[in-house]
């Protein structure tokens, strides 16, 4: 089986540009050391760059200085983003949940398994997988004939745990290691401008879970929603726990953005691939979208 660390680089403006691996390492290092608020010189030393070049490269990748990125990892930044999202979230979710021109269909076409196929546990389905680099470390991509069936980050548990989970979710399917079949997926996921058609995604879940996942696709990058707010938008106020459980069952990381759902207090809540990764994703999106809290 392939070693994730040996996965080939991705030919995409995001993952293939000079310094991709270095900046991915910078993001992970800052998240891991956020509580000591490291200085720019320390980050530069980790990256093997001068402080000036480290800052310039980091801003080019994330839209933030390292200091601003660290500020975005705090509870106060999450609260500020939540307040800023309130005015735009309702309209975005309304568009994403209704009508023949749903917002998410412009970027992602989500297809759920039929009840019969769900009960059959994916019998006869051939799933091909590969491990590829992303801005948040190596990830397992699983492709089905009907679209992307899994995007699992390997920060928690590693490849064997991710594959065991995939086999448990698709017990009667055939899982085949085939990196060539999945090598185009990172570009399609992390560089939407490179797509010439909506990205097809295959999900396996209950009717309610699929409704939650469709709603998540309506939350704009840089914005966040609360579990309770999402439940209300779905017409089931008071079902925040059920919404949280559905988010926890999401197997398409980043693309179905359960990382954009947080608690009313601004606390992050849970995340299937770890809270450090959730923090990094929210900070990264804040920089790309310009949704900054005040940061010196």
Short synopsis of the structure:
It contains 13 helices and eight strands.
Can you tell me about this structure?
This protein has 296 residues and is of the alpha/beta class. The protein folds into two domains: 4-71; 75-289, Winged helix-like DNA-binding domain superfamily/Winged helix DNA-binding domain (Arc Repressor Mutant, subunit A), CATH 1.10.10. 44% of the residues lie in helices and 13% in strands. The chain has helices at 20-32, 40-47, 51-62, 66-71, 75-97, 115-119, 158-169, 179-182, 185-190, 207-216, 227-233, 240-248, 275-289, and strands spanning 108-112, 126-132, 139-144, 147-153, 174-177, 199-203, 225-226, 261-262. Strand 3 (139-144) and strand 4 (147-153) form a beta hairpin. Helix 2 (40-47) packs across helix 3, helix 10 packs across helix 12 and helix 11 crosses helix 12. The protein is globular and about 55 Å long.
CATH architecture of the largest domain: Orthogonal Bundle
- The CATH homologous superfamily of the largest domain is named Winged helix-like DNA-binding domain superfamily/Winged helix DNA-binding domain
> How much strand?
5-15%
Global structural class: alpha/beta
Q: What is the 3D shape? A: globular
Number of helices: 13
Query: What is the CATH class designation of the largest domain?
Result: Mainly Alpha
User: What string gives the helices and strands in order?
Assistant: HHHHHEHEEEHEHHEHEHHEH
Main sheet: strand order: 4-3-2-5
What is the share of helical residues?
40-55%
What is the CA–CA distance across the termini?
A: 46 Å
| Whole-number count of domains | 2
Query: How many extended strands?
Result: 8
Low-confidence parts lasting 5 or more residues at pLDDT below 50? 1-18, 99-103, 292-296
Largest sheet: 4 strands, mixed
What value does the Rg take, in angstroms?
Answer: 19 Å
CATH topology of the largest domain: Arc Repressor Mutant, subunit A
Overall average pLDDT: 81
């Amino acid at each position: 089986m392939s070693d994730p660390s040996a996965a080939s680089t991705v030919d995409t403006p995001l993952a293939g540009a000079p310094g991709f691996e270095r900046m991915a390492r910078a993001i992970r290092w800052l998240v891991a050391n956020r509580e000591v608020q490291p200085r720019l010189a320390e980050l530069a030393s980790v990256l093997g760059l001068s402080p000036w070049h480290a800052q310039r490269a980091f801003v080019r990748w994330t839209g933030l200085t390292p200091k601003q990125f660290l500020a975005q990892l705090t509870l106060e930044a999450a609260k500020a983003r939540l307040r800023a999202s309130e005015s735009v979230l309702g309209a975005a979710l309304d568009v994403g949940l209704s009508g023949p021109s749903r917002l998410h269909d412009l970027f992602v076409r989500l297809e759920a398994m039929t009840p019969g196929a769900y009960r059959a546990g994916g019998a006869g389905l051939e799933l091909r997988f590969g491990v590829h680099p992303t801005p948040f470390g190596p990830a397992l991509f699983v492709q089905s004939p009907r679209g992307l069936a899994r995007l699992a980050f390997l920060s928690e548990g590693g490849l064997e745990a991710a594959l065991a989970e995939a086999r448990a979710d698709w017990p009667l399917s055939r899982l085949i290691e085939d990196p060539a079949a999945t090598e185009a997926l990172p570009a399609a996921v992390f560089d939407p401008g490179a797509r010439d058609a909506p990205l097809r995604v295959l999900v396996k879940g209950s009717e309610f879970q699929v409704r939650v996942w469709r709603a998540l696709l309506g939350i704009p990058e840089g914005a966040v929603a609360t579990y309770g707010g999402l439940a209300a938008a779905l017409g089931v106020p008071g079902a925040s726990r059920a919404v949280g459980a559905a988010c926890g069952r999401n197997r398409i990381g980043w693309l179905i953005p359960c990382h954009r759902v947080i608690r009313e207090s601004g606390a992050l809540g849970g995340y299937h691939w770890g809270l450090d990764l959730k923090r990094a994703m929210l900070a990264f999106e804040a920089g790309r979208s310009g949704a900054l809290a005040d940061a010196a």
